[in-house]
Task: structure prediction
Amino acid sequence: MIQLSINGQSHDLDVPAEMPLLWAIRDVVGLTGTKFGCGQALCGACTVHLDGEPTRSCQTQVGDAAGKKITTIEGVSGDVAKAVQTAWQKLDVVQCGYCQSGQIMSAIGLLSGNKAPTDADIESAMDGNVCRCATYVRIRAAIHEAAKSLA
Amino acid sequence: MYSTLRLTAAAKPELPATLIPSSRRAFLKASGAIAGTLVIGFYLPFRSAAAADLKDPPAPNAFVKIAPDSTVTVIIKHLDMGQGVTTGLTTIVAEELDADWAQMRSEFAPADAKLYNNLFFGPVQGTGGSTAVANSWMQLRNAGAAAREMLVTAAAAAWNLPAGEITVKKGVISHASGKTGNFGDFAAKAATLPVPQQVTLKDPKTFTLIGQPHLPRIDSIDKTTGKAIYALDVRRPNMKTAVLLHPPRFGGVPGKVDDAAARKIPGVLDVVTVPQGVAVIAEHTWAALQGRDALKVTWDDSKAEMRSSAEMVEAYKAMAAKPGAVAVKKGDVDQALSGAAKTVEADFVFPYLAHAPMEPLNCIIEKQADGSVECWAGSQFQTVEQMTVAQVFGIKPEQVTIHTVWAGGSFGRRATPNADYLGEAAAIVKATGGKYPVHLVYSREDDIRGGRYRPMFYHKLRGGLDKDGNLVAWEQRLVGQSFMIGSPFEKVMVKDGVDATAVEGAADMPYAVPAIQVDWHHATSPITTLWWRSVGHTHTAQAVEVMMDDLAHEAGKDPVEFRLALLKDHPRHVGVLKLAAEKAGWSGDKMPTGRGRGVAVHESFNSYVAMIAEVTAKGGEVKVDRVVAAVDCGIAVNPDVIKAQVEGGIGYALGAALRDQITLTKGVVDQANFDTYEPLRLSDMPAIEVHIVESSEAPTGIGEPGVPPLAPAVSNAIFNATGKRLRSLPFDLQSLQGA
Result:
């Protein structure tokens, strides 16, 4: 049994320690907001927070996540999360929306440590998150918007 | 997505009579009230409908439901794969209903072509060719207007006042006497009334929601909180996950299968061989993936594609030495070229392209005890999928229920003429006896290596100018695969040996020229191909618009002025070209050293888009700094969604222009995931301005038209910056080193 703390709740999982956290969250725990995009940490769709740090869950083993505070899109809270989600809605960033859980998790991570990110900061924090709908113009604008609302 | 199953385009294919609705006029019928809910439906008779169908019409399809709590739900017959059609269609109903945007809801329609067909496709329910708003426009305006009239009639009766004195505004029904009510107050009564046969539609000048600069998208909240359900998120009782090992080469089939190691992986339940490959079924995705890795399969490649990309390009070039099937011919192009003062020759190679939607293909198929089958999918071609699944199980299409859910992108990939991945899932369910629902999940590698690509193409062009720099001759020869030949759409789409999807954007190129010939060779291969966001325009726009830039340069003319002079019969091309030039501050293409700007204009899906791209080219690197786009897609239902689609189209096209390609070595795809098939990333994205031409024309497509002009505008900008002409895609940026 491996014990995971996800969104403040404790889950006992009967899975091998090397199982990717992504599949444990989606297929075993049943939280589907975290998405599968590539399986190789190349697209960021599976981004969750591990002790507050944006982390690719498809390349994180369950065993390594045990004992850490795991947060998924369903469990985000606080001023930064609210600012990011509100900005995303205000600017209607989403198109297909599939990558946006991961985008938002990365953006919350960025703004949690950097209240006034520059364009270069945004590029470096967000370039790992692929959006095939190419909503990038609005992602950039929404991060600036969220930063403004947090200031 | 496919451009061509439309009735109004320039190079329009003609649908057989049996596919054309005998009347676009909707026959309004009221369904019974369901728990006080007003349901407005339409019944659309077809010329092809048997007399029996007309005597016993199907239940009316509900487009509008008004609940006692006054929420209005619009039934969406199309797939929303990100293009925003749920917002668009809901806006149209809300407008005619005079509803408040906050009371609007949406839900996806069930699969039933008799009720929810795409009016441009005939008796087929499906989404594509940027037709969703265009084909629904009058249908949903009528639905909204009918619902409004019924509510007003019900209110008039309740208040004992003349209906003509009652007004509706933002969801409130009122009378000058001071009486007011909400939709929910009258929904039950309205549902008992006959549906008006003729309704008065609003004067577009009085629209309040349509054309509003930014009406909030209906899906924004669910898609920013992880709540939106895609097929990958659907969970069914006792559902198992399957992954399929496809043949490594196109046309290959499974030979000997050794599944002993796979079956030992904890969680693996079964391994079955189906015509499409070898499937591993497991308790969860990870076990299925591990099981697949452990399979040992030999493949029969006797009918497989064994060539490498370079050999195929050479074969295409050899084919282009002779004329192909003629798509358009006017005047004597050889004579015109030999008499020209200057000629320009150019050729272009376009690679195979994967669509790579963010949500890998997946679907759930569940067999029921009564023999019927239920499917959950981001279903883009419901009618085809019903037929495919029914065929696998030997049941009737109407016994196949399809639950359409949000799709994580498509770009054409989900609309296959043979419902490929649903067919695979059905085969797996059949092979396992239907004992559990199966969720077939593609990995990214399956997606990138799985075919259904934008076909590889080769274009060879010759153009001629007279001594004054006027265009006098145009010859364009295309070589590429057809995905229509051999498909159910062949009869509609292929005329006189020419596949309309192969030559669209070339055969109907708009520039005035006295002598023109466009012809096409069909190259064949077991490699599967498909429409990819904007279809033939993905390559024809690049060839035509880069050639035009070459010709303008040779003629010593400004590229905008050169085009405008040849577009006298095409006012909407002129409109977007002038608007883009004005907004970009075009005053010739002189730019500081290392920077360049280029222009392109293209019509696709009955919409017109011009773009001016600005680039910085340094060494072998190109950064697209800014793109100014002008769009004419008729009445702009949701201007912000239109802008989003053009922004997205620019990004999608730019990724392909800068670096995407699928190549093969001895028949095996070289790319596998986002490291080798690298999508555009945020730092690559230019600043974008989208300007919309004001129009009173009916709305036309916008999901795809933002794609075609981007690559040629950038290519022309690179030429402007460096003097080097990059024709083929993706751009050979290395050739710019030292430029």
Observations:
- Chain B has a mean pLDDT of 91.
